[in-house]
Design goal:
By secondary structure, the protein is an all-alpha fold. The chain has 6 helices and no strands. Helix 2 crosses helix 5 and helix 4 runs antiparallel to helix 5. The structure holds zinc ion.
Length: about 160
């Protein structure tokens, strides 16, 4: 799938989790930072291996399971070094990476134990529909984050009216 879907899927997952647990309600800045980290982790396989063709995806370590423990270790390091970061990232960063592999698995396939083992997955979601899926994600993101962005913009507008 395209990068927008890879970014959106884990971001929406975290947003649903955060709203249900009301965990970042008092810390909007931290919430945005977490969303950015989760989105980045969701894009990471394609950042590590920028590719156009399916065979390039199949022949890369980034689209296998090997980096997942590394992402988990990186999450541990982040949480240990930046003490204000929540431990929930220990779950959501590897989850974001795995979500990328899952989406690629159902849209062409991946080689989870590259260079060994079989290709797993197929074009259950054909490439002709990837743009449409991106559009669906855009609509969902607009529904989820639209009111938040609107509130932010109106707050900034009111604040700037009070400036001399
Ligand atoms: Zn990919």
């Amino acid at each position: 799938m395209y990068m927008f879907a890879h970014l959106s899927f884990p971001v929406i997952s975290y947003e649903i989790y955060a709203r249900n647990t009301r965990r970042d309600a008092q810390r909007p800045g931290m919430h945005v930072l977490i969303l950015a980290l989760v989105g980045l982790a969701g894009l990471l396989p394609d950042i590590l291996n920028v590719h156009v063709y399916l065979h390039e995806r199949m022949n890369s370590y980034s689209h296998s399971l090997w980096p997942v423990p590394v992402v988990f270790l990186a999450a541990i390091m982040l949480v240990l070094v930046f003490k204000k970061l929540p431990r929930v990232l220990l779950f959501f960063l590897p989850y974001a990476y795995l979500s990328h592999l899952f989406l690629d698995c159902i849209s062409g396939g991946i080689k989870p134990f590259y260079p060994l083992g079989p290709i797993i997955g197929d074009y259950y979601i054909p490439s002709s529909s990837w743009r449409s899926i991106d559009c669906v994600f855009i609509v969902v993101l607009f529904i989820i984050f639209g009111p938040y962005v609107y509130r932010l913009v109106t707050t900034i507008g009111k604040t700037s009216e009070n400036l001399p």
